[in-house]
Amino acid sequence: MATGTPHPQDLADRTVVVIGASSGIGLATARQVRRHGGRVVMAGRDPRRLERAAEEVGAERSVPLDAADTGRLREFFGALPGPVDHVVSTAGSPFYATLDDLDVDEARAHVGERLALTLGVAKYGGAVVRDAGTLVFVGGTGGRRPGIGTSVTAALTAALPALTSSLAVELAPVRVNLVAPGFVDTPLSASLLGDRLEERRERLRATLPIRRVVGPDDVAAVILHLMVNEAVTGATYDVDGGQQLVPP
């Protein structure tokens, strides 16, 4: 059992599976794992983008994967050549719609898919993780503050910490934790905001207590900490630069 203060160097010779690894937080996590001596298996939906990312990182293996496809997810974990030390899932996206514009069937599908994806990673990923290894999920803080158009995201924001705590008990001694970022400057954020991206960045730089925008590496650093700190399980770690502390 590890003792003392954990360091990312403790990932030397460890195998880490990263789902959603071709960009953003997942790619930043894969890079940091490799930087600290770990081996990485990278999975993502876009084969070309994943191939480029895996070559850049020096991944041990890369596998195109839509984690929302339960059958493919089961096959992916079943085909791994042996046990792994950590699994990180950054898969999932926010859902915004006012009630007037809401498609209820679309909302049902989004919520069901997000929960099923998390449960699938827990079921099939948890089965291949070594004792005291981790499952780390990435959620968000965006739904904690009530707002118009955020009902679906708010429901998932509340559900994921509770689900994480229950999974930590059921999968023990495998550890399960959740990282909840606020706004992170990623390609996904850029695609959602379009020409409003720079305005959002400037507002955050002016208002956040840290006086800068949170980036993928900030979130990845917390993910790595959760891998190596064997005293943490069932926890939700916010990484938002203090975004919840200031007016919207």
From TrEMBL:
PANTHER family assigned to the protein according to its UniProt record, in alphabetical order: DIHYDROANTICAPSIN 7-DEHYDROGENASE
InterPro entries reported in the protein's UniProt record: KR_dom, NAD(P)-bd_dom_sf, SDR_DHRS6-like, SDR_fam
Entry keyword set: Oxidoreductase
UniProt similarity note: Belongs to the short-chain dehydrogenases/reductases (SDR) family.
Name of the protein in question: SDR family oxidoreductase
Record's keyword annotation contains Chloroplast: no
Ketoreductase domain: residues covered: 14-187
Oxidoreductase recorded as keyword: yes
Top-level taxon in the UniProt lineage: Bacteria
Species assigned in the record: Streptomyces labedae
Leader sequence segment: none
Alphabetical list of Pfam families matching this protein: adh_short_C2
